[in-house]
TrEMBL record, chain B:
Pfam families: ABC2_membrane_4
Keywords: Membrane, Transmembrane, Transmembrane helix
Domain of life: Bacteria
TM ranges: 20-40, 52-76, 96-123, 135-157, 215-239
UniProt name for this protein: ABC transporter
Length: 235, 244
């Protein structure tokens, strides 16, 4: 379980995240929605203690991220921005990550297989296609077999088959009882993947409801999203 | 902690800049030593000439490659975004930083342990006299500390171009004798790269007041240790405070 309490992030005069509170529960996929610049990526970076909040806090099963003993075995994350060295081989990227958390090297090969990169582990990251790089990021998130997953726009750059694969993967992970928190822009995709929605705009919480209730009250996910965020576009 | 440091060693081992910069360090140092010795052979009867100079001056140029290695170990984390994966895996920034410093220091110490004697031999000197061995030990410590110092600076600055644009010109001028120039020596002798010059026999005869510096051979390395601690402290404070 992931608890966000009064989370706030200011960059100078910009309030990227504005006293945000919500809880992400295990056993389901929670979709994190909001227009461009709503504060989704910033919120996710703060969940990992990468960015320091200017207020509030995040707890993972009651513990702050920085106090987790082997964090990759507790929380797996895919961030929006690249986090692999272009000149390093895919296998080696996962290898050093595994070493930091005492994860056996054999797990590296198995997650590469799991995400469909079994054949390209020896390639350098810069020689991977956009979709392959995204799969490598997902492999890194799954490396420690974590009960909590945070994925920032995981379908970015994936082909229809890849999108379908992610959907199955996320639903499967949730069915195993894991906490799956995933941001996306693709309403149609979210309506097929998510069980629950957290919608934000300008850093503020707009909705925290089940997909079924959201669709029931707005007609469709897309209609509901546009009416909530007033179709404002990027700020 | 051991697992964090071995992960850092894996990072260093798995990018191509590591073998390139380290090979450049050895080749430039030893190659220049060989050439310089050929050039200076006839000058040996000059007043104040110290034959150790042919061996140790080239190290002050070769060290630029070692400094590039130390800088890239940090700045590549930021330019590639790897820093986010690193800190998500090791959220305790103090431990992350210690592991990074330990790994870079171990590699720098290991490679310098080879480069220094190879360079001395390339200058056709025997590794036999106590004087030469002391200078070698000093050079080994000096080079390792300079690399660690760079890690501290790079962690404060984060960008390859800024770190190298700041350090390399100073190192290059240093190799040309910046710390020996009479008018400004009072100050320049204390620059980090100059602190190893007495122990490496590059600062001129120290019993001659025209050359004598305000610190001893090993005192100079002590000063470099202080520079290094200051740079690491600065790097750590920046790492802790700023968003990744
Ligand atoms: N490092 C930063 N410095 C200054 N402002 C920032 C920084 N990071 C984010 N912001 C600002 O914070 C706000 C939220 O950005 P964020 O990237 O979290 O949005 P997002 O919901 O992920 O958007 P998108 O859907 O486009 O990915 C934006 O106004 C952005 O410009
Ligand atoms: Mg984003």
């Amino acid at each position: 379980m992931l608890e966000v309490r009064d989370l706030e992030k200011r960059y100078g005069r910009t309030v990227a995240v504005d006293r945000l509170s919500f809880t992400v529960r295990p056993g389901m996929v929670t979709g994190f929605l909001g227009p461009n610049g709503a504060g989704k990526s910033t919120t996710m970076r703060m969940m990992l203690d990468l960015d320091h909040p200017t207020g509030g806090q995040v707890r993972i099963d009651g513990v702050r991220y920085r106090d987790l003993r082997r964090p990759l075995t507790k929380v797996g994350a895919l961030l929006e921005a690249k986090s692999t060295h272009a000149g390093r081989r895919a296998y080696d990227h996962l290898l050093w990550l595994a070493q930091t958390n005492g994860i056996p090297a054999s797990r590296v090969s198995s997650v590469l297989e799991l995400v469909g990169l079994g054949g390209v582990g020896r390639r350098r990251a810069k020689a991977l296609s956009l979709g392959m790089a995204q799969r490598l990021g997902i492999a890194a998130a799954l490396l420690g077999d974590p009960p909590v997953l945070l994925l920032d726009e995981p379908v970015n750059g994936l082909d229809p088959e890849g999108v379908h694969w992610i959907r199955g993967l996320l639903r499967g992970l949730a069915a195993e009882g894991r906490t799956v928190f995933v941001s996306s822009h693709l309403m149609s995709e979210m309506s097929l993947t998510a069980d629950h929605l957290v919608v934000i705009d300008r850093g503020r919480l707009l909705a925290d409801v089940s997909l079924a209730d959201f669709v029931a009250s707005h007609g469709s996910l897309e209609a509901g999203f546009l009416s909530l965020t007033a179709g404002g576009g990027a700020r | 902690m051991i697992s964090f440091a071995s992960a850092e060693l894996t990072k260093l081992r798995t990018v191509r800049s590591t073998p390139w910069t380290l090979a450049a360090f050895v080749v430039v140092s030893a190659g220049l030593a060989f050439l310089l010795e050929l050039t200076l052979r006839n000058a040996q009867r000059m007043e104040g000439y110290d034959p150790l100079m042919a061996a140790f001056l080239p190290l002050t140029l070769g060290q630029m490659a070692l400094v590039v290695f130390g800088a890239m170990a940090v700045t590549s984390e930021y330019s590639s975004g790897t820093i986010r994966a690193s800190l998500a895996a090791v959220p305790d920034r103090r431990r992350f930083f210690l592991a990074k410093v330990a790994a870079v220091a171990a590699v720098a110490a290991g490679v310098s342990l080879v480069t220094v004697p190879v360079t001395v031999v390339a200058a056709r000197m025997r590794l036999s006299s106590a004087e030469v061995l002391e200078a070698c030990a000093g050079a080994w410590i000096y080079l390792t500390l300079m690399c660690v110092f760079t890690v501290g600076v790079a962690t404060m600055v984060r960008h390859t171009a800024l770190v190298l644009g700041g350090l390399l010109p100073v190192l290059f001028l240093g190799s040309q004798g910046l710390g020996n120039v009479p008018a400004i020596r009072k100050v320049t002798q204390f620059l980090p790269d100059q602190t190893g010059w007495v122990v490496m026999h590059l600062a001129g005869p120290q019993d001659d007041p025209r050359w004598a510096r305000d610190y001893s051979a090993w005192g100079g390395l002590g000063l470099l240790a202080l520079w290094t601690v200051a740079a690491l402290l600065g790097g750590y404070l920046v790492l802790r405070r700023r968003d990744a």
